[in-house]
Amino acid sequence: MRTRQVLCPTDFSETANHALSYAVEMANFYKVGLRILHVISKPYGETNYGIVSITPSELEKYTETYAAEKMRDVLAHLQTHLRVETIIRRGSAVGQILEEAENVDVGMIVMASHGLTGVGHFLHASVAEEVAIKAKKPVLVVK
């Protein structure tokens, strides 16, 4: 951990921004770099049954532009002298987070949990929970 970067996945939510402050703290403490990762999921209407009013390529361009703007906003509000890298990927959030952690050999993953319980937790798999179970690196989950 002492020489490896901290990976902080974000969905740009308030909870994810809260987790980012912990990631910055950890990176500052160990004097390592910070990697901020956003994963663009496949849209539910991707098969296009005539419901989506824009083409898949237009939707892809829109989501990439949106993610890039949000990432710039995150960087603008970061108050750190750390080396910060941003990554935007497409695919399964869990898969992309785990792949990034392994490929870059990060020392720790710091991420948010949205705290779903009961039926909400049953219906929506927790990305944070799945990453914590499957990751080969330490994971700090922030509420």
From TrEMBL:
It comes from the Bacteria. CDD domains: USP-like. Pfam families: Usp. Residues 4-143 form the UspA domain. Belongs to the universal stress protein A family. This is Universal stress protein A. It comes from Shewanella gelidii.
